[in-house]
Amino acid sequence: MPRAQIKDEKKYQSLRDKGESKEKAARIANASASQGSKKVGRRGGKSPSYDDWSKDELMRRAREIGISGRSSMNKSELVKALRNH
């Protein structure tokens, strides 16, 4: 069933199938529907990968978005939790 806030349902589902979060998939699907995927694709990729962040930076970000159990996670677990949020 299509959601009213999602402008490009096919793009949204494709991104969700690839493991993107609901928020990120909706943001990309809506931006590409209104501006075109080529323009959106050129604009992306400005933030460094979580793999390049320090553990302290990952912990801070996990705290900001409310990931539970973060205090007992190692760096790779934090990266996975952040990507899945």
UniProtKB/TrEMBL annotation:
- Extent of Basic and acidic residues compositional bias: 1-26, 52-64
Q: Which InterPro entries match?
A: DUF7218
One Pfam match = DUF7218
Q: Where is this region: Disordered?
A: 1-85
- Descriptive protein name: Rho termination factor
Source organism per UniProt: Actinomadura viridis
